[in-house]
Amino acid sequence: MPFTTIPDPCIASLTDAGRNAFARALSGEISFKATSFAVGQSGYQDSDPMLVQPINPGATGLISQFFPVSPGLQPISSFETPYAKTLVINCRLGPNDAVSALGELGIWAEIIYSPSNPAEVGTTFLMALVHTPVSAKTRNKVVVFRVVIQF
């Protein structure tokens, strides 16, 4: 995970819900937007914290959400679409946010349009996950995660 003001990219894996939402959006069935993120203290292997745990595509939340306190979510800082079918999401942790060992990050999205099923508008879901080797987030350090999602 990046721990500088110039972020390094993190490649995210879509969850099943995220993959389904992109397929439905590309066919015009729904529209959704990435809205928030959270970070957690898992994502790496306990026996060797430099190795990551595999992503569970069926996940609906983080393994061990630390910031913000579950079920809270942190707003996304900014978005970019540098290439077709590529979304870059910038997630910022301030100086006193998530002071801990970190290894997972989740991106949540919200359905904003669904003409065939208006009741699902407002539904939020875990769209993508990132697992990394353990990284220490200390006080007074600003962290920006540059999360790359390709669909």
Beta strand %: 35-45%
Number of helices: 1
Average pLDDT number: 91
Low-confidence spans: none
Strand count, sense and barrel status of the largest sheet are: 6 strands, antiparallel
The coarse overall form would be globular
Radius of gyration, in Å, reads 15 Å
Q: Structural class, from secondary structure content?
A: mainly beta
In total, the number of domains comes to 1
State the order of secondary-structure elements, H for helix, E for strand. Answer: EEHEEEEEEEE
Spatial gap, N to C terminus: 22 Å
The percentage helix is: under 10%
**What is the β-strand count?**
10
Describe the structure.
The chain has one domain (9-150). The model has no long low-confidence stretch (mean pLDDT 91). It has 151 residues and is mainly beta. Strands 2, 3, 4, 5, 8 and 9 form a 6-stranded antiparallel β-sheet that branches. Strands 1-10-7-6 form a 4-stranded mixed β-sheet, with no helix packed on it. The chain has 1 helix and 10 strands. Helices cover 7% and strands 44% of the residues. Strand 6 and strand 7 (86-93) form a beta hairpin.
